[in-house]
Amino acid sequence: MASRQEEKEQRRRERLEAEEAQRASGARRRRLQLVFGIVLVVVLVGAGTALAVGLLGGGSSDSPSVPKGGADIPSQSVGDEKKAASAAGCTLKEKVPNEGAGHISKDFKASDYKQNPPTSGAHFPQWAQDGIYKPGETPPLGQLVHTLEHGRIDIQYKPGTPAATIAQLETLYDQMDGGHHLLLFENTTNMPAAIAATAWDNQLTCPAMNPKVFDAIRTFRESHIDQGPEIVP
């Protein structure tokens, strides 16, 4: 028969085991609560982000998308320069008589050149940079003529051209090798054409804008880009 001391020791061990089990159970409960709290925070943050995107229209399948390159234009269908110009009703002048290439520091005007828009002639020592120029921001004429000497193609439109047409020309600009060695701007020489493209000793003039003009400009560029007497990167 167990002694009183042994019974006392047995009860103590049972009490310690019960307390240890209780502590372990509490620790498990706290860990579960912590995990649940983290999951809840993640869910709420995700829901908030989705709601914000939805409110801003970024995640809506009904939101209109703007295609890269701006306004839509027809794909190229004619690859021959002369055929493309004829189909568009444009006049193509190749090997226009050269008017010189001197550098003069002055304010050049359309009357300084025989062609409108100019294709060669004396020009300002500084040249205009490649790029798209908004209406009213056209570089000086003498700088534009200088770009032709460097093998650039100058694409230009008559003042008063509709914004939709300008947007289409900007799309065309971007599609032609990302605008490599191209300038697009509003004409300042009072040219009779609605749309024109010029290169050194070469000219394309179109009396009216129509879908076929895009191919006329594309093929003109392909034939005459980087053909000036001085090629500057």
How do the helices and strands line up, and which of them pair or pack?
Layout: H1 4-56, H2 81-88, E1 91-94, E2 131-132, H3 141-149, E3 153-157, H4 163-175, E4 182-186, E5 195-199, E6 202-206, H5 213-224
Description:
This protein has helices at residues 4-56, 81-88, 141-149, 163-175, 213-224; strands spanning 91-94, 131-132, 153-157, 182-186, 195-199, 202-206. It is an alpha/beta fold. It has two domains: 1-65; 81-224, no CATH class. It has a six-stranded mixed beta sheet. Strand 3 (153-157), helix 4 (163-175) and strand 4 form a beta-alpha-beta unit. The protein is elongated. Residues 48-69 have low confidence and may be disordered.
Would you tell me the overall average pLDDT?
Answer: 83
Number of strands: 6
- Report strand %: 5-15%
CA-based gyration radius = 37 Å
Low-confidence stretches: 48-69
Give the structural class: alpha/beta
Looking across the biggest beta sheet, what order are the strands in?
1-6-5-3-4-2
Q: Termini, distance in Å?
A: 108 Å
Number of domains: 2
Which percent bin holds the helix content?
40-55%
C-alpha geometry: elongated
Question: Largest sheet at a glance?
Answer: 6 strands, mixed
Order of helices and strands: HHEEHEHEEEH
Number of helices: 5
Task: Describe the structure concisely.
With 233 residues, the protein is α/β, with parallel strands linked by helices. The chain is built from five helices and six strands, in the order ααββαβαβββα.
Question: Features of this protein?
Answer:
single chain; 233 residues; alpha/beta; 2 domains; 5 helices; 6 strands; elongated
